[in-house]
C-alpha cells in the first residue's frame, strides 16, 4: 500500500483527538484505583450520565454548553459521592472483585433505566456556536470543536496530575492510600478525602461525557462502547499511575488512528493486542511500579 | 392442562425481561419475537415489535375464536450464535412455531438456518441482507419489509441518475454491510457509475473521523453509508463536522429508519435521501395504525420493521386459519402464505414470491427541512414511488435454488 503522507498526518491528528477522550476517562479510573483501590466499572455509565446531563441542561433549563462544562461534572461528581457514601465505602479492604461487581451492577441498572426511557438511537446535541466550523490545514479539515477537545482535555489532565502529584492536598491523598491509619493520626479526615477523590474521578468522566456530546449522539450505550478500551488503557499505562494513563491514553488513540488507516477491520482490537503484549513483557504496565 | 411460566434472559451486558405465555392443547401456537432488545438496533425493532405482533394477533380475532396465540420475546444481542441458540431452545422447549423481527443480518441468517432445519416459520422484518431470499433462501423463510437489493436499487439508482456517479463506501464489517455494499456497488456500476473504494468499520463504532477522512480524500461524489442505526447517525453527524457535505460530497444513507432521523434532528438530517417501504404518515390507514400503536408504544411511531412484524403476523394467521388449524409444519404454512395474496392497511396489496421475497412498493424519501416539519415526527417528503415489480430483485436474476428456471 502506498503511504499517503497527508492522509497519515490526518490519521495521527484524529488519533490524538480520540486519545484525549481515552486520557480523560482513564485518568479518572487511575485516580480512583490509585486512591481507593476500586476498579470502577461504572465509569462508562457516569460518562454517559455527563452527556445526558448536558442534554437535560440544554433542553429543560436552556443552559448551554459552557455552563454544562462546569455543572454536568459537578452533578456527576455528586452522584459519585452518593455512590461512594452509600455503597462503595463498605467494600474498602475487600478484594477488588467486589468493587468491580458492584460497579458493574450499577452500570446495568443505570444503562437499563436510560435505555428504557430514551431508547438506543440517542438524542442530538449541537456544537456550540463559538466552536462551529473548522480550519483547512492542507492535509485535513480540522473541525474547531475537535481542536478544542484536545487542548481542553490536555489542560484538565495536566491540572489533575499537578493536583495529585505536586500539591499538599495531593500528598495527603497519596499518603492516605499508603497508610490511612497514620494519616488519620495527623488529624486528617481520611474517609472524607476518599469520598471527594471518588467524586473527582467520576466528575472527570462526566466532563468527558459533556465534551463528547456534540461529537457523538447522546446515547445510553455510549459509555459501554468505550469503557473496555479505557480499561485497557489503564492496564497498559499501569494501574493507578496518573501520568501513565494520560500518556497511554493519547498514545493508544494514535495507535488506533494508524490502524484505522492501514487495516481498519482491526481498529477495535488493536488496543487489546497491544495490551496483551504489554502484559506479557511488563505485567505492571508501561509506567507502573512493581507492587 | 394449563401451564404458564415466565422467562428472564440475563445477558452479559444487557438485561431483558421476557413475557409470560400460556398454552392449551388444541390450536395452540406461538410467535417468538427475536430482536435486538437493548443494543444499537433496539429502537428499530425491539419492544415495538412485540407490540406490533400482539396487535396483529388481536386484530386477527383468532384468540376470540378459541385459539391460543401468544408472543414471547428475547434479546439476541446482535450475536448470531446467541440468536440461533435462543431459536433452538424456543423450538425444542417452548414449542414456538414462528419467528419475527430478527434485526441484524448476521442473526437473521443464522435463525433462518435453524428455522429450516427444525421446520418452523421464519418471517424476517428486521434484517437487510438480500441473501435471505438469494443464495441462502429457504422454504421456511419469508423476507418481509426490505432488503439490501431494494435499498441499493432505490437510493443508489436515484443518486446516480442525479449525477452522483462516483462512490466511496463506509461499510459496517458484517454480513449486512457487505451485502449492502455489494448490491449498491452493482447498481452504481450498472447505471454507469464508478466505485472508487470502501472502508470497513467495526459494528458499533462511535468515532468515524478516520473513516470519514479516507472517504473525503477519495474525492468520490457520493459517500455511501452501508451501515445502520447508531453507526449511520454518528457517521452523518461527524461528516457534517468535518465539512464533508459543505465540501461538495454528498452522503447516501442507504438504510435509515425514522428513529434515526429523530435521533439526528432535522438540522443535521435534512436533505438526506433514502428508501423505505413504510412511513407512518403515508395515508389514513397508516395514520390510524400509528395512533393505535402509540397507545401501547409511546417512544416512536412504528418503524418499517414494526409495520413488517404486524403485517407478517397478520398474514401468517390468515394462512393458519385457511389451513383450518396449526399443522406445526413450517414449510407447509409458508407454502400456503405464498399461495395467498397479502393485503393489509400498512403495505397494501402484495404477494410473496417463490424465493420468499414479500413484494410491495418502495418509496424514495427526502428528509424535510426544519421549517417544513409541522408536527411531531413529520419528517419525510415522498420523492418517488418504486412500483412493487421493480423494487426488488427480478425473479429471473435470483440465485435462490427454490426458483424454477
What does this structure look like?
The complex is a heterodimer of chains A (291) and B (405). Chain A contains eleven helices and two strands, in the order H-H-H-H-E-E-H-H-H-H-H-H-H. Chain A has 291 residues and is mainly alpha-helical. Chain A has a single domain, classed as Orthogonal Bundle (ABC transporter involved in vitamin B12 uptake, BtuC), CATH 1.10.3470. Chain A starts with a helix and ends in a 10-residue tail after the last helix. The model of chain A has no long low-confidence stretch (mean pLDDT 87). Chain B has 405 residues and is α/β, with parallel strands linked by helices. Chain B has two domains: 203 residues, Rossmann fold (3-Layer(aba) Sandwich); 155 residues, Response regulator (Rossmann fold, 3-Layer(aba) Sandwich). Chain B is 38% helix and 22% strand. In chain B, helix 1 packs parallel to helix 11, helix 4 runs parallel beside helix 5 and helix 11 crosses helix 12. The longest helix of chain B is centred in the C-terminal third of the chain and has 20 residues. The N terminus of chain B is likely disordered. At the A-B interface, helix 1, helix 4, helix 9 and helix 10 of A face strand 11, helix 6, helix 7 and helix 8 of B.
State the order of secondary-structure elements of chain A, H for helix, E for strand: HHHHEEHHHHHHH
Q: Assign an overall shape of chain B.
A: globular
Number of strands of chain A: 2
Order of strands in the sheet with most strands of chain A: 1-2
Looking at the structure, the CATH topology of the largest domain in chain B is Rossmann fold
Overall residue-averaged pLDDT value of chain B: 85
Q: Mind telling me the CATH class of chain A?
A: Mainly Alpha
Low-confidence stretches of chain B: 1-28
Into which percent range does the helicity of residues of chain A fall? Answer: over 70%
The overall pLDDT of chain A, averaged over residues, is 87
